[in-house]
Each structure stands twice: as structure tokens, then as C-alpha cells.
Amino acid sequence: MMDSSGPWFDMYLTARDSIVLNFNPFMAFNPDPKSEYNDQLTRATNMTVSAIRFLRTLRAGLLEPEVFHLNPAKSDTDTFKKLIRFVPSSLSWYGAYLVNAYPLDMSQYFRLFNSTRLPRPGRDELFTDDKARHLLVLRKGHFYVFDVLDEDGNIVNASEIQAHLKYILSDNSPAPEFPLAYLGSENRDVWAELRQKLVSDGNEENLRKVDSAVFCLCLDDFPIKDLVHLSHNMLHGDGTNRWFDKSFNLIIAKDGTAAVHFEHAWGDGVAVLRFFNEVFKDSTQAPAVTPQSQPVRADSSVAVQKLSFKLNDALKAGISAAKEKFDATTKTLTIDLIRFQRGGKEFLKKQKLSPDSVAQLAFQMAFLRQYGQTVATYESCSTAAFKHGRTETIRPASIFTKRCSEAFVREPSKHSAKELQQMMAECSKYHGQLTKEAAMGQGFDRHLFALRYLAAAKGIVLPELYLDPAYGQINHNILSTSTLNSPAVNIGGFAPVVPDGFGIGLFTLSYTGQPLSTLNISDGPHFAFILNGILQTPHVDILYEVKVVPF
């Protein structure tokens, strides 16, 4: 019997488009609450150590299971956690089920570390080497590796890691004329061919070190100016200082602004967000070094290896072509800001409205106002309640949102406030139903996707349904949306999935620092990108407003 997630892996791995903008998203960390810990070297050391602590906890089987609590007052308590430890593993699931707690699938987690997507003709390959002990560091387009685990699997002393990172930060070498990292942004078949040339030219050992590294740490040589700059930098950067194929890149700017940029084929936001939250919590609450810590005297010139790649004329030409494509594509992404300080999730909950449903309704209204129509809309929903579960689609655009949007946008004076409120309540109720159905595997998108996959695999003529223009239209998702909730997230996002579309990230944030401006990301001839979120502080809820700009 086929692994249920196999076709989904195939969908990602057989896609030949560049993974930059088309697939890879980012999530940016909040600053460390202790401002002096946002020094680049200090934060890079602490986050690296915290990431390795997570790795060791995961591999030791000690990571607390990911659980969805329907009744957290009963199940998300220390008492329940202590009691469930004494229940045999074969029965513990039933014990959790009795208190409405559902353990989630964590099979993706092992690919967080030592993993890379390798370009191959026709279908890429996910590569993992959990025996490797070294970290990959990128700075100014140069590649460095050094061990962060010793031969016994213990974390190398934090002050040694700090010393090695300080050594890398002090390297005054100019940026390479032909930055290798551009190749990872190419069409996958083009990149596969160029990679084979790299291997044939004597770079196989160095590529193996890149591919097998625990993860990729990217040290940028400039501070972040604002959230617009942050989003561009963490989503794509200038193409020289990321290894886009790595399971994730931990990016730390000159001012300590940090983010995770991740490749999407191996896993989804659930696994990355858990890692993200744990790293933020550990690095801020139990930092390995302080701003006053002095790195030990380590022979970094021996411990740190700078990788040198041999590039023939064909490879240099390939890098130049990749750079041209990268620059042309990323220039089409325009970002703008708007702050809207009215309402918020707590207010909506008091009105018995789902904050997510209201945000989705706002997207529908904005699009209707701007373009005069309702379009195919995608909202991702985790199906981690199932073994090897990935995602299902929630379809937020419905007859309810259409009716409500038209009432607000086209004829608000024809309806009383009570009638408008009733329409919003209907939208919220129906959206809640769609969300539950999707989470429980009762959506239609993955079902139809699987049937189409099986028809192709068995050589069956494609059923007429898949050739119907309506099927093509509903899968041309002009509004692609995703939501997450975390106190560690500053902001995050992803690009659109179609040339005339929008990528909308909804972030429910708990943040006690300065209020953040919202991102309203707009038009390019090919790409548009909007970030939207709800920011909750102790005193005020800020609902980010989406202003849709023509594209």
C-alpha cells in the first residue's frame, strides 16, 4: 500500500520551478527581550546552541510530543502530563483521547537537521545524513564548516562555537565574483545539470559537506532597516548568502534580526514552528553566552574550513544566468506598509466570531472592492492528526462570504447593522465547519489530487472532471493564505502561487515590544505578496488591515 504522503512529496519534488518565491517561506523571530543580546555574534552563538540542544533532545526521544488540546484546561496541565507518563505507550493515545487531547504526527521532524533537497532531472531527492556533526555557515557568499557536535554527540563548548563564528565574521575576503548560491534559485532541471558539472569538476566532497551539514547559518553583513527590508531579505535576499535547498537557513543580520527560511518539500509549518518556538524560548531564557562572554582561545584557523569550489567557464556562465533570472524575478515583488489600529482577536471572540474567519472575510471584501469579483482562495490546514499527515485545503470563499462581501462593499445602506452582523456570524460558523472538516481529512482538494495522481500512475485516461474549466479555475488560487500563532514570531510570509496572485500570511502574535507596522505587499507584473496579522499587546489589540493594490 502506498504511503499516503508519497504523492504529496512527488508534487513538491517533481515541480521544476525555482523554489525561491514559488515554495520557500520565512518566519522572522522577535528580538531578544534583552536588547544587548541582539548583538550578531551573541545571538548567532545562542541560537546555534539552542538549535543543537533541540536536535539532541529530538534524537534522544525526549522532545515533548506535539498535542492538539481541544480542552486545554483538562489536558494541557502538568498533572495530566505526569499521569500520562505512567500509561504504557500502546495505551497512552487512548488516555489522551479521553480528555480531548490529540497527539499530532511528528514524522517530519527528523528532516529538520542534516537534510537538503538535491536537484535531480525530473524529480529531486531529499537527502539526510544524521551522522554529520558540522555546521554550514554562509557569509558574503563564502562557505565555512566547523563541528558543533563532538565524536560522542555532545555539543561543542559554546565559547568555542562563539570563537569560530567570530573568526568567520572577521574574514575580510571580498565577496566571490561568481557566488555559488545563485544556482539554488534556478529551474530545478537546469540546477540538476549544473550540479552534475560541479561534481565532475572535483567539487563532490565540498557539496557533500554542504548537503550533510546540521543546518545552514547565514550571517548577513548589514542591519535590517524596516519590516519591508526584513521581508525581502528573509524571503529571498540578494541570492548570494543562502543555500535555498537546505531544510532550513537560520539567518542573522548585523543587528541581530533573525529568521528561519525553509525548504517546503520535506515538511510543513507545524514542525518548523515548533523548532522556531523552542529555539526562541531557549536562546532568550537559557542563553549559552552573554554579551560579556569572551570566546575561548581556539585555533579557529584549523577548526573552521573555508570551502573552495572549482568553477569552469560553463559553471560561471550558469551562475551569471541564474543571477539575471533571480534579480529579474525578485524585482517584481513590491512591499508596502499600512497600520490599522482598530479591533483585534479578543474583541472578535467576545462577539463570538472566529478571528480567522473575519480575516478571511476581509480578504474577500478587499478583493471584491478592488477587482469586482470573488476568486479561488486557498487556506492551508494541517492534517498532522493523521499518520504522515501534511495539509488539506480550507476554501474560505463561499456563498456566505460572497453574500456578506457584496452587502458590505456594494450595498451597505440596504442592510441594518444587525443584518450585517448576522451575515458575519454565518460566515464564521461556516468557516469553522470547513476548518474542522479539513483538519479531519474531510476536505475535497487532497481527495481529488490523490485520484488524479492514481489515474496518472495507472495510465488511466484522465476523467473529464479534471479537464473542466471550473476545476482549472478553482485550482488557480489567486488568494493563497496561511495562518499561524506564536509569541516568538515577529512576522513572516510567502510569495503567491500563481503569477496574478497574492500570498497572504495571517499571524496572531503576542508581543510586548513596540507595535509593529503591518505589511501591505503589493504589485509587480508577476508577483504580489501581502502580510496580514493580528498583534495583541497587554493594552491594545491591533488588527492589521489588508489594502489590496492593483497589479
TrEMBL record:
Pathway: Lipid metabolism. One of its GO terms (molecular function) is carnitine O-palmitoyltransferase activity. InterPro entries: Carn_acyl_trans, CAT-like_dom_sf, Cho/carn_acyl_trans, Cho/carn_acyl_trans_2. It is an enzyme of class 2 (transferase). One of its GO terms (biological process) is fatty acid beta-oxidation. The active site is at H264 (proton acceptor). It catalyses: (5Z)-tetradecenoyl-CoA + (R)-carnitine = O-(5Z)-tetradecenoyl-(R)-carnitine + CoA; decanoyl-CoA + (R)-carnitine = O-decanoyl-(R)-carnitine + CoA; tetradecanoyl-CoA + (R)-carnitine = O-tetradecanoyl-(R)-carnitine + CoA; (R)-carnitine + hexadecanoyl-CoA = O-hexadecanoyl-(R)-carnitine + CoA. PANTHER family: CARNITINE O-ACYLTRANSFERASE, CARNITINE O-PALMITOYLTRANSFERASE 2, MITOCHONDRIAL. This is Carnitine O-palmitoyltransferase 2, mitochondrial. It comes from Pteropus vampyrus.
